[in-house]
Amino acid sequence: MEEIYQFKLDPDKETPMYRQIADSIALLIEKGILPTESKLPPIRKLAAHYGVNTVTIVTAYKYLEQKQMVYSRVGSGTYIAPLPIAHIPTSLTQRNLTNFSTPPAVAHTINFTVTSLPHTLFPVHAFKEAFDAVLDREQGGAFRYTDSMGYLPLRDTLCRYLASFGIQTNAEQVQIISGAQQGIDIMAKAFLQYGDVVFTESPTFYGAAGAFLSRGAKVLGIPLQQDGMDLQALENDLKLYHPRFLYMTAYFQTPTGISYSMEKKRRLLELAEQYDTYIIEEDNFYDFHYGKEKPLPLKALDHKNRVVYIKSFSKILMPGLRMGVMVLPKRIRNAVLEAKYTTDISSSGFIQKALEEYLCANGWERHGEQVRRYGSGKYRQAVSMAKKYLCPPASCILPQGGVSLWVTLPEGVTDEALCSHALTKHVLISPGSQFSLHDGPSHEIRLSFASLTDDQIAVGMKRLGESIRELMQQA
Description:
This protein is of the alpha/beta class. The protein is about 40% helix and about 15% strand.
């Protein structure tokens, strides 16, 4: 902080004193000389040093706060902002499309990038019966447009399903969508204007961040801890940036697998109410829980109607189904409905009717139990092989659910280097930088095990361990 005391004020300049002080501090911030979260000098001390009134320093700090370069903590002081808004990167979508495209298929490649289940687990026969039943019942009428909010019997059926997760809602608050990604994009379309700010977890799912960036929003990542977002960092940023909404996943987060503690879920809802913002909660993998307790979505605790809950059926049923659901707070229902209508009028009526028929005939739990048994076996194998071949020198989070492991690499080994090296051993992995809001290499990778056999998991982990150790020797 000594640098702040070194610039000279010029009383003969037309520029007011407070601006001279503020501009000098701003220059130090932009050059990186004043680090993020460092505390600015006390107002009285800086005023005494420059021989000015304390009001001059207060005005300088307020000016910097308006520029979103600093923020104040009540009773504590003024601090350098985590990330000046003009510097928030916007290259995520382009980086993922250009740098991390799936390499050409290689014979005998072990692919740790696929998060969908093997097609042998798809309930094909049951859906064939559902398709036939709908066609027999409705003939050509099966292909008529449905209400833009979705097929009412399906919405009623999904309300009963959601109640099993603790989400109490009604058909008027349920919007059928063509997959979770469309739900995220509809929220961006309905509420974001150029320059708006959106918070996500850091790291985060690039599909969501890409949707926000495509609408001209600025995306700011909130660091993750073992039990969810760093809530102190979140509150500091809420004071400073006033985001349009916050995007998160309460269980088995993409890509880390982290789940939120009950304490953090409750506090997150309190902060959303206090700072008048909404939370988008995406549920892709809650069905893939391998512990005794069923996940309790954030939406189940949402007594103030601050949460937009988005669930995809692609992971638990079939990727090509392209069907999902949103549960909407009343205050934003009409805006979402308009955005959905101008996107595609309505999701496929025939698929909606078939899904409703399938759920009525088969329920949800039988297939869910089958998938959880399968996923749990793959999870145990992946954890066992990771401990045997990767950890140490690497380390990984044990999520107790989902279909992936998030692995932190040893010092000196980057994700890009490991991706390239592993490819020579016919192993494909997802680099951590694919999920980052910042440019540059990462020291994490994601390993998805859902589509692999036990032998492939074992062989792939062994090859990865060999690659990591060979790169460590080269470092």
